[in-house]
Amino acid sequence: NEEALAEANTSRIDYTNTPITLTVDNGTTKAAMLPAGYSYTSAVDINSTNFDQKLTSDKRDLTVDAGKIVLVSPGTKISGNLTINSGATLVVAGTFAASSLQGTGTIIVNPTATVSVNNLNFNGAVKFVNYADWNFNNFTLGNGTFENHGTLTFGSLTVNGGTVQFISEGTVTRNGNNLVNIFAASYATIVA
Fold first, then answer.
1. Of 57, 83, 81, 59, the residue nearest 144 (C-alpha)
2. Residue 42 has what DSSP assignment?
3. pLDDT greater at residue 40 or residue 74
4. Are 71 and 53 in contact (CB under 8 A)?
5. Which residues of 87-100 are buried (b: 16+ CB within 10 A; e: fewer)?
6. Digit-coded pLDDT (tens) for 58-113
7. In this structure, are residues 167 and 34 in contact, taking their beta carbons and an 8 Å threshold?
8. How far apart, in Å, are the Cα atoms of 92 and each of 44, 56, 109, 122, 165?
9. Beta carbons within 10 angstroms of residue 32's beta carbon
């Protein structure tokens, strides 16, 4: 009977922060837990960090050179195509309005930042760390890591090729529905 079946299934579920294992179409097993050795990236205190450059006027298209730390200051907008090179960090405390990300560095969107993005293409192996709240239509992940601590609301999420990590301890909503069940492609690790 249905009651016995529900009770049997309930006994198989452990609600105490135990990793969930997902099996995807090709039989690959994925665990819904942080990848081994992964540690979260903190938001940046812009008042006590020594930046190599502080952007104080709006900027379209930006390349951050290897090893540099650049701040998009409060009241300043960054848009267009961003390239964040190896070991480089872009900290956004102003407005983030980029349409394309590439490179192998790190972008940190602080909690006080404003995000104004409709469509975002995430290429290269950038590590993108979000602490802000934002809405967008389409989000395409090609490679890299997207770490979310804020609130994301989007229309569609596409994972294309490469190696992608989508890690969230914040809120993720697609078309008005909180993401509880997520399809993980064979090349993606998704933790939400």
1. 83
2. P
3. 74
4. yes
5. ebbbbbbbbbbbeb
6. 999 999 999 999 999 999 999 999 999 999 999 999 999 998 889 999 999 999 99
7. yes
8. 9, 11, 5, 16, 21
9. 15
